[in-house]
């Protein structure tokens, strides 16, 4: 007879099984789900302690903390899925302060009936993304809602990190005369998501740019600790992010459209759908605002990183009491690049 | 991008701008109405006005499908959702248009009404197939461009024997609207509004061809140039209009030859003629009641006509007080002439339809052009 008593006599069925209400009830079914799915993919020493919290030592200095809820549809898309996205998104929010990311937490809201195979795939992808980034998921939570009260799976991740000495990056630091840097082509993520929505029915080779930017940021901060602003242009795209920064810093900006890289497949898809790539989401790009001197040092460093190969200066910060973002168009005219209002919608006629 | 980037080249734009400056007679004005919201959008998005001399002006017309739908028709659609419990499918922009009683379709949806944004009429058919126990109504709007897909959907629904889908038809016709503008007192009475020539629609003309404009070019002695939606198309067409005006000609010319011919898309026209017929009159926001300016579903397809299937009470609704959308749609006022513009009416909180769609003149002014002039504030 085997001396080791198996904790759960039957393994979790990650092929045909589905989430049911017992997986959120706090009983054995939930314990098994945590053991055989979450701990399996997130495996690390802190999580293995199986406490309701993760305890760790902190270093002196400024800490940053950021939270991000992910409610994306579809859950799987070209170049990623909700799992990897929930890791990259929160790490990026943490590192846009110049911080080194340390730990993540993950909260899952699962809908009754959600296939365990899909959950397994999502959590594996999260685990992989966390491993690659070297930022472990050290604590988590699972809830199950009745069928019809969720959309498959919602994931909320929180991240913490430590900011190196002397770094004061913040959205309110942009000054007239500063330059605006962008780390690569825009709109890839949003177009990849839209192309995988069944009712749009178009195919593209574009993949999401979903990626964790902490290594790129670390190099940038080491090169130029006096960077003023960093932000990742996610929802609402580059246009919305620049408007946020202009408002926070009480400045205006001038962009040169021809200097903003857009892949031709993204441009074509946007053209077809009547969208403006400036407003389409990115998940692996950053905007950096810094002095001219810093820009000269930063550009080669950014271009040297696999995630910043196409880094460009796309404009400059100017004085403007209206805090407008103005853009010299490819066509040679000038226009305001406004906040996004409502959602971007394909035009009718 | 083929057929797109070629029409956005800065160098060519500079050459065209120089040609326009050379040929435009400084002793006169050129007031050119772009009928279509698509042109309005292109003019603002690419900053085309910056490249024009001061005496060449764009007058924005009513060619925005969302903008011209009267409030009453949206109220009626809301009735269908609230009273008849139908699944109402429509194109996205329409969801945000303000209706009576501070309602809009998006608010009705938030309150539990089954309103769904679709990208095509095919989505509405799919929803009908997936929900055989529910009535599905497609709220159809738009000019001649969106009419053929509506016709196809109705033909398909009939062929398939779908019993639970119908179309609330609000399709309108471009030539009737242009004629109405030219007959309006503001244009006829000298010194009020002057429109010297027209940019003809691009997508609409791909369906109906250039022939339908020939009547009023002749009758009203105004040149028409059918123009593509790209910025170079607009500039080339402006030059063609200026030449016609300088030479005293009023012809229909076609700049958009890569798509439009004189007869249009005959196959699409046949489909439309099979399903739709002219309405005796239809109310337009801004233009009022315009005879023979819209379509309704023919007798043979009456089972798919939401207006026959449901007892939709006719609603006479008023625009919000102070809203100048009607005058703006006729080209009689500019967005900045409206007291609501930029104060209480912005794209985030539209009071009038012209602020909703990106093709609406107010939204285009606000989003792309408001740095040009100080924003008006109401007292």
Describe the structure.
The complex is a heterodimer of chains A (349) and B (379). Chain A has 2 domains: 21-163, 60s Ribosomal Protein L30, Chain: A, CATH 3.30.1330.10; 179-336, Phosphoribosyl-aminoimidazole Synthetase, Chain A, domain 2. Helix content of chain A is 30%, strand content 21%. Chain A has 9 helices and 13 strands. Chain A has helices spanning 28-42, 45-48, 82-95, 116-133, 188-195, 214-223, 237-249, 264-273, 292-304, and strands at 62-70, 76-77, 80-81, 100-111, 137-145, 153-163, 179-182, 229-231, 252-256, 287-290, 312-318, 325-328, 334-336. In chain A, strand 12 and strand 13 (334-336) form a beta hairpin. In chain A, helix 3 runs parallel beside helix 4 (116-133). The longest helix of chain A is centred in the middle third of the chain and has 18 residues, at 116-133. The N and C termini of chain A lie far apart (75 Å). In chain A, 47% of the residues are buried. Chain B has 379 residues and is an alpha/beta fold. Chain B has helices spanning 10-23, 37-45, 71-84, 105-110, 121-130, 147-160, 174-183, 185-188, 203-208, 214-220, 231-247, 266-275, 306-309, 325-329, 361-369; strands at residues 30-36, 56-63, 87-90, 115-117, 136-142, 165-171, 197-200, 224-226, 252-254, 276-278, 281-284, 288-291, 295-297. In chain B, strands 2-1-7-8-9 form a 5-stranded parallel sheet, sandwiched between helices.
